[in-house]
Amino acid sequence: MTPFAIERSVLLDGIPHGFFGSAGGAHQFGFGGPGDAADVRTLRAEAANAILPGGRLAAPHQVHSPDVVMVDAAWDDAAEGRPVADAVVTAMTGIVLGIVTADCAPILLADRAAGVIGAAHAGWRGAVGGVLENTVAAMERLGARRSAIAAVIGPTIAQASYEVDAAFHSQFDAAANRFFAPAPEREGIVRWYFDLPSHIVAKLADAGIDKIADIGRDTFSNVAHYHSYRRSAQVGEGNYGRQISMIALP
Prior knowledge:
The protein has a single domain (6-156, 212-248), classed as CNF1/YfiH-like putative cysteine hydrolases. It is built from 6 helices and 14 strands. The protein has helices at 37-51, 124-129, 131-141, 166-169, 196-206, 229-234, and strands spanning 6-7, 17-20, 56-58, 68-70, 87-90, 95-101, 105-111, 116-122, 150-153, 163-164, 180-186, 189-194, 211-214, 243-248. The strands form 3 sheets. Strands 4-5-8-7-9-13 form a 6-stranded mixed beta sheet. The chain has a 5-stranded mixed beta sheet with strand order 1-2-14-6-3.
């Protein structure tokens, strides 16, 4: 098998975690992406084992919601039947939390002292809808302290790659204008570049998190390293792959 391409952050040192890339396109971790579901399931299990030997994966069915699942036991990692949510948190050992993405941001969170971890999927819709605030609140209910939570943003579409239109811009209030930079007009239509990672940093900071790091990798432009929904759409691919991000308690 092609070796896993895994990136980690020093901010989460001591916490088993990793942001898995596409390994040159060899690895596709989403049940909604190309490939046989049984192969995807096997790959996800092997990735979870690379993070925590013997660990069981708990990865939800993601729908761009603000919803969080508090995990007290892993579930069957199958294409159908997983809990519907866009974030997972736990204080249980032996569980590997997972989130799949393809331009949206994966965020891994941990309060080492409390023994509480989380993983969230935040595109613009989830970020505006409150998935990050809800994740932090769920971690608090398990005993975490906001002042002790560290959060790392994984590979995400960068501002220079994220051109948007007026309909997109209208989904945000005036306070979010700082996350939009002018883009060249096309056919007389005003466009912007949206800074999703910075928007997420601000959301986390507003939620009381001050230990924040960003891996700083652009999923769109790094063709050999990451899947990208937007890139696949631009070249007319009917489907697109996903990478996965995982975290566990030691």
